[in-house]
Amino acid sequence: MNATARVSITSADGHQFELLSHVPEQATASLLWLPALGIAARHYQPFADALAAKGIAVFLHEWRGNGSSSLRPNRHHDWGYKELLQYDLPAAEAAIYATIPGRPFRLGGHSLGGQLGCCYAGLRTGDLDALWLIASGTPWWRSFPAPRRYLLPLAYRFLPWLAQRLGALPGRRVGFGGTEARGLIHDWARVGLSNHYAARDLANDLEAGMRTVSTPVSAIVFNRDWLAPAGSMQQLLAKMPASKPMLHVLSSQQLGTRADHFHWMKTPQQVAATLLRHND
């Protein structure tokens, strides 16, 4: 097992956080991994170890408001997709290049992390070796199977209202995410209603950026995951028509654990093997 190191980051707007790095002695590539909503970076350490054992230097990102982040959302501290895409992810990527320069750079994410990874891939100007998506997909309500999808528009209206009223979304209490910034929930819910990615106060056209992504994309969904069904991932992949994506649907039998949104994180060996097999 590779030792975990901490890389301190300060974003352009002063936000401070740490990357958890798992760097093998002979790294063949680097990966910036973006967590799901409300999930701290440390929960992906088994996944990072599985990839590092195969030569991938993994850097686990920390979202604002989680884990090592210097900020917590409340009435006085708010942010949305803009701050994550414009400040935090470029700072994290720069730190990776400074830590292990000269390696092919890969980007990936779980759930919301996969969505924002696609958005960020469309904003970048440098080469991207691969884009890896796990249990992700657009939250657009029409991409979900019936009957659940008919309830989603209600959630996409209620959760931003609740976050605005309370100053932040109490995700643990409502069963969705952690304590989340109201601007973040507003940006996420807008995609859920419209299937159009945009960030409040960000001039960049995120949809146009994703259409330019031509890097190889490997996507994995799980057949018992109601939070990220195959149709949701397919709609996300359709936003990157130049990428020639490969979509894999894994079962509980293949994983050796329940094939849902979170169980793979504790036994990630099959997920890591699938990603690596299709990136050779």
UniProtKB/TrEMBL annotation:
- What Gene3D superfamilies does the record point to? alpha/beta hydrolase
Specify the domain of life of the species encoding this protein: Bacteria
Fetch the Pfam families from UniProt.
Answer: Hydrolase_4 (PF12146)
Residue ranges occupied by any Serine aminopeptidase S33 domain in the UniProt entry: 33-248
Q: What is this protein called?
A: Serine aminopeptidase S33 domain-containing protein
